[in-house]
Structures are given as structure tokens and as C-alpha cells.
């Protein structure tokens, strides 16, 4: 039998946490043969709710779940973890300045970076979900210098999956037959959902999405804005932000990272830019990646047209500005 893996979920008493922890305990994230020990961190005002979640985990009698740590102590939460899913953060409230929200999150991610660096298992993989996800991940990276930069990522898989979902609805095909959409850049409305390399499995072989949709106007306008604005549409409909789809996509992100992507398939992950595709190095930017042996690699050599280039640059620009804002909060 495999040794259990320790998985940290911060903000575990929140909405995404509530959807995510049962998925992890069921093996959705790490595989149906991988026992897990869940570490759940939240803050003191949420401690009762956190303990309630722990009670439900016990009640659900998950065979793969070998232990639960529920705590408000970041050191205890981070100790020995192999995977860290950072969902906790400070939400933007009505009337709050962008800088104030950034400042709160910078201080959270700075201190949690230190706790992870000092106490997580070697080679711990980190996924930041909490917004501003890319910039929180960047702060975490900067303040955990001994964690390799390749181990720190942010979630854009939800946006990626939304893009696959929109294509599948439009073409009336199974979502599992659609692949290789790309989310470039920031997990914000400046992101660029790109289907220039996406394909659909058909009875006559794999076909480019552009050929099947045959309506460039829709692909270049409504498709993009629907994916960019999907988070807002969910809030409008549900009065709460996406939780089940965020949790499921976080599982997809970690599962592919740890267990690999299928041959010929790439997925989107926010990773530390090495300057690929002319994206400024030193940003956490969403790229197409393949994963193997527990590591991601940016897919190289995809042709980029002028339309895409402009959108990729605009979202990079936004991330550079967010980075500057985050740094200004440090002083
Ligand atoms: P929520 O407000 O329901 O839960 C957040 C939890 O974090 C709360 O329980 C809160 O007490 C906790 N928390 C706050 N500060 C903390 C700290 N310093 N340490 C540990 N826990 C802390 O929010 P929800 O809906 O679960 O969303 C969580 C985050 O994920 C938000 O920032 C949201 O914007 C983001 N998000 C990101 C997505 C993505 O695709 N990257 C998609 C959807 C949401």
C-alpha cells in the first residue's frame, strides 16, 4: 500500500474548501489508490465552521482518508505537506481599494510562504487558488526562496475547462473530445482564451476547432468574453462565486501535475515565466504546459498570430502592474 500524502487546503472552511476536501478525500486529486491526510487551515473567526467540516469528513468515512488536521496555526498546517492548495485569502469587499485588498493578500502570502518554506515536505507542490491568484503565487515564490520556482503555480485550469465547455456546447460534442485550448496570462478578465491550437475528436479524426466552428467572428469575440466573464456570470446566478468548478479544476491541475498529462494533450497552468513566447520573465503567467514525472514544461513553438500577440501582451501588462502594486505594498 502507498504511504499517505499530506495535502494542505488553506481557507478550508470556505466555499471552495467545502467542495474541495471531499474530492481530495475521494481520490479525485491524487488517484483512487493514493491515501491522503488532509491538513485544513483557516483563521480564528472560522474555527467552528472548520471543525464542522472536519466532523463531516469523519462522518463520510472515506476509505482513503487516513487523518485530518484542522487548525488555525499555519506552522502546524504546513508541517510535512506534499501538496499545498492555497484557497484562503482576503476577498475584495464593496468599496475597498484595489491596493488595500492587495496589501492584505500580500501579507497573508508572505507569511504563509515562510511557513511552507520552513515546514512543508521537500519538493512540496504549491497551487494558489485565491485571488489575485497569479500575484499571490508570485509573492509566495519570492518569500519562499528555497522552494524551487517550478513548484509554485496558480490556478487557471478553471478558465481552461470553461473554454473547453464553451466549445463543447457550441459544437454539441462531448467535452472529453475537446482539448488543447490555452489560457494565456492572468486569472482575471484580461486573460486570453486561445483556441487556435484546440482540436476536437471526431469520427473522421482530430479536427481543429477553428475548422469545425467555422465562425471566426464568434470565436474572436463572444467566445473570449464568455470565458473571461464566466466567473461574474456565476456570481450573478448563484450569488456566490464558482466553487464546485473551482474545486474540480484544482483537482485536475494537481492530478495532471503529479500524474502527468496524456500524450498529445496540453493544459493551462499559471507558472513562473522564463520568457517563453516573449512573456516577461519573473511573472506568474498562464501558459500551455505538458506534465511528466511530476514536472510541467511549457509547450514550445506554437505559432502566435497578431491577434493573439496583442492579447497576450495586454494580460502580461496587467500582471506587471499587479506585481508593481504588490511590491509597493511590501514597503
Ligand atoms: P470564501 O470566502 O468562501 O473562503 C475563503 C476562506 O479563506 C474563508 O474560510 C476565510 O476564513 C479563509 N481565510 C481568510 N484568510 C485566511 C488566512 N490568512 N489563512 C487561511 N485561511 C484564510 O471564498 P471562496 O469562494 O472559497 O474562494 C476562495 C478564493 O478563491 C477567493 O480568493 C476567490 O476569489 C478565489 N477563486 C479563484 C478561482 C480561480 O480559478 N483561481 C476561482 C474561484 C475563486
TrEMBL record:
<dbReference type="GO" id="GO:0006099">
    <property type="term" value="P:tricarboxylic acid cycle"/>
</dbReference>
<feature type="domain" description="Lactate/malate dehydrogenase N-terminal">
    <location>
        <begin position="5"/>
        <end position="152"/>
    </location>
</feature>
<feature type="domain" description="Lactate/malate dehydrogenase C-terminal">
    <location>
        <begin position="156"/>
        <end position="324"/>
    </location>
</feature>
<keyword id="KW-0816">Tricarboxylic acid cycle</keyword>
<keyword id="KW-0560">Oxidoreductase</keyword>
<dbReference type="GO" id="GO:0030060">
    <property type="term" value="F:L-malate dehydrogenase (NAD+) activity"/>
</dbReference>
<comment type="similarity">
    <text>Belongs to the LDH/MDH superfamily. MDH type 2 family.</text>
</comment>
<dbReference type="GO" id="GO:0006108">
    <property type="term" value="P:malate metabolic process"/>
</dbReference>
<protein>
    <recommendedName>
        <fullName>Malate dehydrogenase</fullName>
        <ecNumber>1.1.1.37</ecNumber>
    </recommendedName>
</protein>
<keyword id="KW-0520">NAD</keyword>
